[in-house]
Amino acid sequence: MLVSGNPDGAGFGVYVHWPFCASKCPYCDFNSHVRVGGTDQARFLAAFRREIRHTRERTGARRVQSIFFGGGTPSLMAPATVAGILDEIARNWHVEPGAEITLEANPSSVEAGRFHDYRSAGVNRVSLGVQALNDPDLKALGRLHTVAEAKAALEVARTTFERYTFDLIYARPRQGVGQWCVELREALSLAGDHLSLYQLTIEPDTPFEALHRSGKLAVPDPELADELFAVTQAMTADAGLPAYEISNHARPGAASRHNMLYWHYGEYAGIGPGAHGRLLVDGRRRATSTVRSPEQWLVQVEGDGHGAVEDVGLSRAEQADEMLLMGLRLDEGLDLARLAAIGGVQPGVDTVQRLIELEMLDYLPELHRIRATARGRFVLNKLVEELSAGFEAVAS
Amino acid sequence: MTDISLIRNFSIIAHIDHGKSTLSDRLIQLCGNVALRDMQEQILDSMDIEKERGITIKAQTVRLDYKYKDGKTYQLNLMDTPGHVDFAYEVSRSLAACEGAILVVDASQGVEAQTLANVYQALDNNLEILPVLNKVDLPAADVDRVKQQIEDVIGLDASDAVGVSAKTGLNVPAVLEAIVERLPAPKGDRTKPLIAMLIDSWYDAYLGVVVLVRIREGVMKKGQKIKLMSTDANYQIERLGIFRPKQEMLAELGPGEVGFFTASIKQVADTRVGDTIIDEKNLNAVALPGFKPAQPVVFCGLFPVDAAEFEDLREAMGRLRLNDASFSFETESSAALGFGFRCGFLGLLHLEIITERLEREFNLDLITTAPSVIYHVHMNDGTMLEMHNPADMPDVVKIARIEEPWIKATILVPDDYLGSVLKLCQDRRGRQKELTYVGSRAMVVYELPLNEVVFDFYDRLKSISKGYASFDYAIIGYEEEQLVKLSMLVNNEAVDALSMIVHRTRAETRGRTMCEKLKDLIPPHLFQIPIQAAIGGKVIARETIKALRKDVLAKCYGGDISRKRKLLDKQKKGKKKMRQFGSVEIPQEAFIAALKMDEN
User: Fold this and answer.
1) Do A247 and A345 sit in the same domain of this protein?
2) Is the ipTM of this complex over 0.95?
3) Dihedrals φ, ψ of B86, to 5°?
4) Residue A328 and residue A187 share a domain
């Protein structure tokens, strides 16, 4: 079955990674770097263009449903850089009319000043890293903006782009249910059609991890985290923005198409330093990734035409695991027919039965899907482990 | 053939780390048997595990040619004896093959309990003992104090003890001279019919079973037809020779000599340490004294983590048994662990060595169940059951009484740690028999139930004495005790592999500790798990493992699915190492770790 002319039926998107930030947030383990002297954007643009052309040679013709500028902080890019990249993508693949083109942005006044030019370059959706709606917590999270600036940036976004969304981090140190409810209520009043709400995760090798390890940073215990999660589910649903994924909420039909590409296990090209991709080459799904260091990536692309450090074919079992990992995050659950077609497996009946009895999983017979319940979604790692361990081969 | 008056047979007695292997290496080097480039550190301890643990498991021997200052060349046969209490019988046979022994004592540490036990064995075998103080070059060495200690503790004249540094080679030639001068030559008559003692045997992939012998009387010749008395089996000698330490073939071995032979013997179990070997025509021969078949005293279940590896495990055990007749096994099936083997060992160290070799040399993942001893279960109908698996415990109403094995333990410990050691022995139901002082160290003799020792007594003793206490034991007999079977229930199901026999007075404490341990060792599941300890139908302790509340990646985009998949692979690998009991997964470490009882 083919959708939109692309193989595998799940669409095609392009992820572009801009690896620079004005400062590094202490909780973040993404591939982001601070360069005091600024960056040579023209040189980077040329390299992005070359890598796009190189990737086009691998994939062949595709219809692009989504482009996503992530980072780092893509709102540090000059609008001309964004325009140049979008231009190169459109030269190499067919960008569908109405494709979702998202750019992640910091909600500072400087960056909001560029929103209009991003819109002119073709960006139609912006995702703002608001993170908190009180100034002391913003400071503790290492953010450079204030609540007032964030609200102003949101207003610019709302009037400039077709769609906008923003992120909040909750389950923060010392955050109680009451305090979070107040903040979430305000967030819902500011939201458009989409909202991302992430519980703070202590990632390895971050300043927060060091603080956490030495006992100087306490995060809510699993019981409180679970309560915060539950109240978040209830309030967003009441406000008409139910969760469609563990941490993502949208009005019906307004889910982020780009992220859905990942969760539907679609095809996407990763462009830029430390970007990951899943490409279908000669009918085989491949995992790709590029050099993480921006400067080394630049040198490699200028020499070889691409920044790839990894480009490996995935076995059916690996694809099955990846589909499961991604698909079960969604409220709509995992399409078992697609799992069988791509991964060659189905979840074991005993495992499914047991997880249903534990009220961790639902089976939707008419859709032939499984989905994690709200409880199950909060222990998803365990659920995925059990289902993957219980996979049975299906005759193909 | 060497004149019998020029032969010296000796072994080296030493505590672990006191330098036995290093001294052996130096003696071999001095006699020029090994070219320097062939010199591998510690030539005699050849198995990897022996090297790592610094102990000898199999007896080894080497013949040295030593040119003494009288111009004559002496034949020195150095027997390297196993250095652990588990192998006490093997030690006694090695010693019985010698006329003398070198007692190596660390000049700073002094005499240890285990050394003591071996010295007494040597004295029992009428060996001449030559004291050597090692590591005299170290700053902590206190030669006079240690000499005094040897005299006080062992009752041995240490005035002309040789002080050496085996590591640097300092004064080692004096040891060789003393061997010739002070150790007696063997006795024997080459015209008499052959009588030899079987010292040890092992399986060699090329030669088959190799038998190490000491000739007492007569001559052993290539092609000779011989008989092993305990098994009444006849063989023909195919190869005969000595180790230097490389093999060297000979046509015959005369009285007083030590060497090896091969004779198409299929497995090591056919050759028993201490057995008497005679010419098959010698119908009137009398067996040498001291022979004793190997007797396992500690038992445990060994199960493959992956049930599909059962046959691999069987094959691996068969191959280990080729080389180690003292290790026994039979098939066992456990409701919890599936098919595996019930194995018998000479002691805890032996158990550890075997399981380590199975895992390392045969690449198997094993679950080890609680070690157990042999209980004598006397039934109401007058019969007696030898029970070494708690799962075999008969219905209590049919049992008249249960007896368990007791040991006599000798512990040497510096004064500072005496209190903790006494408390440990007391906690393990010990009865103090003796408490004497040897310089600043106490010698404690306790009677203890073996059951209390097999779990982790030695580990505890080492840890509470910061490694300074040394320990030796011998089984003294069986006594009736109030023993009960403690069952562990996980999620309301009894896990047979976790059940154990305990003394009634200790059942509650142990049950409570087990519950707490299992609570820590079993990871949270998607549901709540009750853990209970029970005697019969009565629950005596319980804990609850709370259900998992949060285990999710909050943020999962940016397209790096590989990292998440690798995490999942790791999770699944961990899961494979778990054992499924109903719907609960128990990690394999739980089986052994739960039994290591910390006592505060």
Assistant:
1) no
2) no
3) -60, -25
4) no
